[in-house]
Amino acid sequence: MSESEPHVRIFDTTLRDGEQAPGVSITLSEKLEIAKALCELDVDVIEAGFPVTSDSVFESVQAISRTVDGPTVCALARCVRNDIERAAEALRDAPRKRIHVFLATSPIHREHKLRKSRSEVLATAAEGVAHARSLCDDVEFSAEDASRTEPDFLAEVAERVIGQGATTINIPDTVGYALPTETADRFQALRRSVRGADKVIWSAHCHDDLGLATANSVAAVSAGARQVECTINGIGERAGNSALEEVVMVLATRADRLGVRTGIHTQLLGATSRLVSRLTGFAVPPNKPVVGANAFSHESGIHQHGVLANRATYEVMRPEDVGSGATRLVLGKHSGRHALRRRLEQLGYEVGEESLDRVFSSVKHLADTKKEIDDDDLRLLIEERPHTHRGT
Q1: If you write DSSP's letter for every residue of 357-373 in order, what string do you get?
Q2: 326: pLDDT strictly greater than 90
């Protein structure tokens, strides 16, 4: 990846939006452990929490601010003076800090939650950003539920907060409603029509209610977004957020089309995923892209044969590039002779075609009652058949 290619900032909100996932509660020591892992991963921004919500969250943001050296530490606040001041206080000791203010902009939120008119929302957003900017040089503004906000009003809000000093404008798909084509169109339109658009970083924050969070994040990048907000393993409210590991590996794997880069040390993705899973109690599904146990596992005989010939036949990433060990050929009812021969050789056995056929038949029979054949099973099967063992 060329250093001249545009850099996409990775904004990790595992410790804020991720902790909002129902059933997740992370202690201060656990948050510091995750923050350290995120530093090693080399994310650009760590959103450490929403300080006004409780004393414990304030203290955790404060502790992370004092510990983290490298990424920008960010704290969330509503467009309310007390929220903003509490965020600034929690961030006081951070070498690099950002206040992230948000306000809902969609008609349904304006009417039912805020009970504010368009003009009132504009004024509140502008006042919030101005106050945050008086306390911090790096201010992000999020238009909550942007994907269901009228395009003209969203552009007006963005223009107003840019005028008040916002340095990053986030266009969240808060309820996971947008389609990727809509997301790309929205970012292109805003970057084209908003005065001062070229002076700020445009950011995407996508939820996964319809399973489109990663696709929407990538669509935003393709349309000029240069920050993506995401979480390790995609944890977060309801169905979760864009998964950091997915977004990063899409951008890396398809750099030929997207032409951007991140600074993430991808070899640490697997370890970071496992850490967050252990500390949150949220298991990673086996079929989870990039970091799932099956992401680089193959059982189909046709696939196994292809992978043995050249891994690129069925793998678009290398497992070692994401810290997932090695390609795994699973012996089961769908596996073939090529994988069986390879595994027997790895165990130290050499078998002829006739012996291989007999063992293969036994493996298939056993696989009818056992989902995966392990090495002990193979040893038992091979020891019952004519064979040659190296060294005997």
Answers
A1: HHHHHHHHHHHTT-SSB
A2: no
Q: What Rg value do the Cα atoms of the chain yield, rounded?
A: 25
Query: pLDDT at residue 1 above 60?
Result: no
**Residues 165-200 pLDDT 10s:** 999 999 999 999 999 999 999 999 999 999 999 999
Please count the CA atoms within 13 angstroms of the CA of 119 that sit on its side-chain side: 0
Q: 228 — phi, psi (to 5°)?
A: -125, 130
CATH number corresponding to 9-280: 3.20.20.70
| Domain segments of the chain as ranges | 9-280, 297-389
Q: Are strands 139-144 and 97-104 parallel, antiparallel or unpaired?
A: parallel
The pLDDT tens digits of the residues spanning 21-57 come to 999 989 999 999 999 999 999 999 999 999 999 999 9
Task: For residues 102 and 141, give the distance between their C-alpha atoms in angstroms, rounded to a whole number.
Answer: 6
Closest CA to 84 of 136, 144, 158, 123: 136
Cα–Cα distance for residue pair 373/242, rounded to 1 Å: 35
